[in-house]
Amino acid sequence: MKTKLYVLYGGKSVEHEVSLKTAVTVLHSIDESRFDAYPVYITRDGLWCTPGQLSKEGLTVERLIAQPELRDPARSIGEILSGMMALPGPKVVLPLLHGSNGEDGTVQGLLELLNVPYVGNGVLSSALTLDKAMSKQVLAQAGIRQTEFMACRFEEWRSDKTAILSEVENRIGYPCYVKPASLGSSIGISRCTNQVELLTGIGEAFSYDKKLVIEREVDGREIQVAVLGNERPLASLPGEFIHDHVFFDYETKYMDKRLAMSIPAKLADGLTSRVRELAILAYQAHGCEGLARVDFFLDGDGEWFLNEINALPGFTNFSMYPVMWERTDGTSYSELIEKLIGHAVARHEAKQTIRYAR
User: I need a labelling partner for 283 at 20 to 30 A (CA). Which of 101, 128, 162, 296 fits?
Assistant: First the structure.
């Protein structure tokens, strides 16, 4: 009997569109001789829609979201999930929900309650990696070098703007980056070179989150490493986007057709082995399982600074994560999905041996 693969996509996050692109690519690549795909679309309002089993023939983003007849507000999430779980045979859930309400441990907690295998990180690692402020504390505890940073909550900012500005200018300095603590795809991030830009950047970041992170700029290259696995994770060869932008923002990531990947990144052998070691160390420090992409800066002195860890990295055909694995060991996109499903099932089976999980 084929495995039923429930693919969750869309969601209430501002990364809704990124999730849709990922879902189309994944659904096109699933081996239909082994899996029956059941897309589950979550609208921007948080309504769950189930079109039933779908073939990848002629599948587009428009087709994935054109389900008005299924948007019945009388149907609860519980009813949707009960219907999914009632179908016979093996099941795996593949969450492709980027950002808040999907990548932050919320959906993962729901799937844990259902006691169903799901791809990717668990509740704690998902929450830690999405919250940049908490992640930086974990990295500091693990002894992994980072750039100078500070966190700030909205209430602190509203209470004493002068003290916060003074701390940024005296401890962080310019240029600096202001980031919403719990968001991805470079949304809401600003590069600031003076106080006017800093004030604007802080206002922008607080429009997306009630906590932000301010970091000193590292003058260097941005290098990424893909990590895959559970108890014994593997790190890919490092990769790098070649571009001439000062700030690698959302428009650059998703709109600039001139971007080129360099995989493996051109590094001295010692630097390559070291960054792969650091990626696995960061992955394990966060308790990650399944997958993550770990992003670094390499300065002119050959020092590594960990930028951030992404528990659900971009996953289209043209995203760095799957391409890094293809260039590392020849793993194709569809093979990578099957490996991730295998890790999900293995983790779930291991949990069933724990007394509380029975």
Answer: 101
The count of residues in the chain is: 358
* Encoded amino acid at 323, one letter: V
The pLDDT value given to residue 55: 67
Task: For residue 102, give the 3-state DSSP assignment.
Answer: coil
Question: What tokens were used for 72?
Answer: 């019945």
Q: Which listed residue (308, 319, 333, 347) is catalytic?
A: 308
Task: Exactly one of 101, 249, 254, 274 is catalytic; name it.
Answer: 254
> What pLDDT digit, counting tens, does each position of 250-300 carry?
555 545 566 789 999 999 889 999 999 999 999 999 999 999 999 999 999
Nearest alpha carbon to residue 324 among 195, 234, 209, 220? 234
User: 3-class SS at 197?
Assistant: helix
d(CA 19, CA 154): 28
Quick check: 134 and 45 in contact, CB under 8 A? no
Exactly one of 216, 221, 293, 347 is catalytic; which is it?
A: 293
Catalytic residue among 11, 15, 38, 100: 15
254 has catalytic annotation: yes
Q: Is 307 labeled as catalytic in the residue annotation?
A: no
Residue 310 annotated to the active site: yes
15 a catalytic residue: yes
Q: How far is CA 22 from the centre of its chain?
A: 12
SS3 36: strand
For residue 85, what are the CA distances in angstroms to 36, 102, 107, 117, 188?
14, 19, 15, 11, 37
Q: Which of 86-95, 136-145, 310-319 has the highest mean pLDDT?
A: 136-145
Q: How would you class 167 by CB atoms within 10 Å of its CB: exposed for 0-12, middle for 13-18, buried for 19 or more?
A: middle
Residue in the structure block whose two tokens are 């082995």: 273
Beta strand pairing call for 190-192 and 35-42: unpaired
Catalytic residue among 310, 319, 321, 347: 310
- Indicate which residue of 13, 19, 100, 185 is catalytic: 185
Closest CA to 3 of 230, 341, 348: 341
Q: Is 276 designated active site?
A: no
